[in-house]
Amino acid sequence: MTVVGGWQPPAYPYDRLVPLRAAADALPGGVVDLSVGTPTDPPPAVVLQVLADADRGSSLRGYPPAVGTEVLRTAASSWVTSTFGSSAFVEPDQIGACIGTKEFVVTMPGWLKLRRPGRDTVLYPAVSYPSYAMGAELAGLRAVPVPVDDAWRIDLSSISSEDAARALVLWVNTPGNPAGGLDDLAAAAAWGRDRDVMVFSDECYAEFTWEGAPRTILGLGGGPDGTDGVVALHSLSKRSNLAGLRVGWYSGDPEVVGYLREVRKHAGLMVPGPAQRAGAAALGDASHVLTQRVLYRDRLERMRAILAEGIGLEVTLPRGGFYLWAEAPGGDAWGLAERLATQAGALVSPGDFYGSAGSAYVRLAMVVPMARLEVLAERLGC
């Protein structure tokens, strides 16, 4: 049945790459996929062991708690303190589990709209993860992009008083996807507190911060523990190469986290029991993250050199994250993407996937082994 005038989903960004993927895959040795930030490195051995023993403790047989097991939430609480310091401490009861963070990003605005029906706007960085805007659209809310500065940081001063008064949520993302910017999280927390706007901070790449220590918005909000008005979002997908396990969590403002935990119970949003056990094990092991940091940093530097030597494209290393954000010659991002696909067999993401303000750039995800980057170097003669 055809419905006229109803909302229709736009083309999924990565589906637009099908012709470029075919061109890249036609080269001997096939495509080198740098388009999606999906990890390809091995997960930690301790996680594999926990998954192999999944039936112990009946984690397969019973319904897992939607809020997250006490073991997982306690592990997440300890991880926050060890990663960001004691000032960021959150109690396990200030933490809720989610089925990967994308699910949370796109459903949360709709839940909060029910709580605050007088607000109708989601603010998010103009160059950013597309799910921030999609979450607003799926909830029937206004999706309003906030300009970013030359360092790809959100420019809070550019938000109009009208948009601020209507704002339900402000998203920040540090380190940022796709450009690797590092927002001033203290300023974001203060902005939201002064305007009674919840600030959600997506920190899924925190352990891949290259300039300074990992940073969080936890401890920077209002209230005695610095969490009033702020919620941080974290994930095992990137830090532990566990994107397929779908384990994430949100933490912060006790009232808002408590509200979302209750709503999500009713919606039946539960991280599978074995995944929760494995997630707790991953959070207890820091050594594999140190190894992963070296891998990503080496790949960023090597790919930067390949682009410079192979096609004369100079790229600045990101302040955080594992993406290269490369400005296309003449601002023709799709032209650069086609050139990389046909000449090097590299599949990359044109910047308009992340907002029109990024349309002159391409994003390259450093998720493939170094040997695959060397295939690109060989094809480009460098």
What does this structure look like?
The chain has 382 residues and is α/β, with parallel strands linked by helices. It has two domains: 13-43 and 287-379, Aspartate Aminotransferase, domain 1 (Alpha-Beta Complex), CATH 3.90.1150.10; 45-283, Type I PLP-dependent aspartate aminotransferase-like (Major domain) (Aspartate Aminotransferase, domain 2, 3-Layer(aba) Sandwich). The chain is 37% helix and 14% strand. The protein has helices at 18-25, 45-52, 70-84, 101-115, 131-138, 161-166, 185-195, 254-267, 273-283, 287-311, 333-344, 370-379, and strands at 32-33, 95-98, 121-125, 142-146, 167-173, 198-202, 230-235, 248-252, 323-327, 346-347, 349-350, 361-365. The strands form three sheets. Strands 2-8-7-6-5-3-4 form a seven-stranded mixed beta sheet, with helices on both faces. A three-stranded antiparallel beta sheet has the order 9-12-11, covered by helices on one side. Strand 5 (167-173), helix 7 (185-195) and strand 6 form a beta-alpha-beta unit. Helix 4 packs parallel to helix 5 (131-138). The termini are far apart.
Keywords:
single chain; 382 residues; alpha/beta; Aspartate Aminotransferase, domain 1; Aspartate Aminotransferase, domain 2; 2 domains; three-stranded antiparallel beta sheet; 12 helices; 14% strand
